[in-house]
Amino acid sequence: MDERLKRVAEIAEEHHCAGANLIAIMQEIQSEFKYLSEQDLTLVAEKLGISTAKVYSVATFYENFSLEPKGKHIIKVCAGTACHVRKSGPIYDAIHDYLELKGKSKTSADGLFTLETVACLGACGLAPVMTIDGEVHAKMTPESAVELLKEIRAKESAE
Question: What is the pTM of this model?
Fold first, then answer.
C-alpha cells in the first residue's frame, strides 16, 4: 500500500470507520490531497463497510468534492447575477484561454491553477469578483485577471 493510501486508511480509522463520518472523512482526505482519487473512495468504502457506489454518490453529490487533481492555486470566478451582468463571463474566458485549458479540464498543464465557477461569492457590490485561494479580487476585467495570474506564475517561478 502506498503512502497516500496508508494516510487515507489512517483518516478513516481516526473517524472510527463509522459510516456516519463519511463526509468528514472525505473532507479530510480532500483537504490533505486536494482531491479524492478512485483508490481513496474504494478504500474508504472498504474501511467503512459500505458500497463503493454509496461513497461515489456522496462524492459526486456535493460540489465541494473533486474527483480530479486540483492545482496549487484555486481560482473561482463568480457567475452570480450581479457578476454576470457586469461581465464575469469574459473574465472566465480570458483565464481559460490564458491557462490553455482543453476540453473539460479545469487544471492547467503545469498543475499551478484550477479554474472554477461558483454561483455566488457574496460580494455583489464588488462585482465582477473572483477569488484566488480564498482571497477576493474585486471589479475585475479580463486583462486584470490574466495579469494577476501572470504575477502569481512569475512569483512561483522565482521561488
Answer: 0.75
